[in-house]
Amino acid sequence: MSGASVKVAVRVRPFNSRETSKESKCIIQMQGNSTSIINPKNPKEAPKSFSFDYSYWSHTSPEDPCFASQNRVYNDIGKEMLLHAFEGYNVCIFAYGQTGAGKSYTMMGKQEESQAGIIPQIS
After folding, report:
1. Is 25 annotated as a binding residue?
2. In contact, 61 and 72? CB cutoff 8 Å
3. How far apart, in whole angstroms, are the C-alpha atoms of residue 72 and residue 58?
4. Is 100 annotated as a binding residue?
5. Taking all residues of the chain, what is their mean pLDDT, rounded to a whole number?
6. What's the distance, CA 14 to chain centroid?
7. What element of type H or E holds 103?
8. What is the pLDDT, as a whole number, of residue 2?
9. What is the pTM assigned to this prediction?
10. Does the entry feature the keyword Nucleotide-binding, yes or no (predicted)?
């Protein structure tokens, strides 16, 4: 590994029960590594687009071909991080976002089959 390396990943989670009951609208769109945000106050305005190393669409169900599973996130981020740690490099995942954004789900997952997050899969 030559030089320092920082990778940035974003993930959109499914609506929680409160958001579903309020019939919330998803204002995020993802295509490849590009994430776009629609202004809910002015939906006719052009979306703001941002590029990241990884843009994970987890808003729908696993049946959606664009759906990013826990396993995919681990394979993209966790495996490489573990490899670098075994090579003696310092590694860190910095999970950032507001309360309820899905940080714990990504890192720890759920106790359901195929729902383990990055940390349990590394162990």
Report:
1. no
2. no
3. 11
4. yes
5. 90
6. 11
7. helix 103-107
8. 53
9. 0.85
10. yes
